[in-house]
Amino acid sequence: MKTKTLRIVFIIIGTMMMIYSGFNYVTTEKMVELGPITILSHKEHSIPFSPIIGLALIAVGFITVEKNRNKKDSTTNL
How far apart are CA 50 and CA 45, in angstroms? Predict the structure, then answer.
């Protein structure tokens, strides 16, 4: 993956982590099975996102963009 694409991905993922606080998913487990009767249990699990990690990803994305711009500017002035 190219560095420019990686920087954009960091910024997008960081922004999404700031907007959404996490996600939930549901698993189904078989609790009891008595002949033809089956009792299922649905358990909801949540995975929270830390806004600090989102901010860090956004910062890394923007810092590397600026560092690359400064590097290009210094090489064109030679």
Answer: 16
- Among 4, 3, 6, residue whose Cα is nearest residue 57: 6
Of how many residues is the chain composed? 78
Whole-number Å distance between alpha carbons of 76 and 18: 36
The C-alpha atoms of residue 27 and residue 15 are separated, in whole angstroms, by 28
Q: What is the pLDDT of residues 39-59, one digit of tens each?
A: 999 999 999 988 899 899 999
Please give the single-letter amino acid code of residue 49: F
What stretches of 1-78 show up as alpha helix (H) in DSSP? 3-19, 51-76
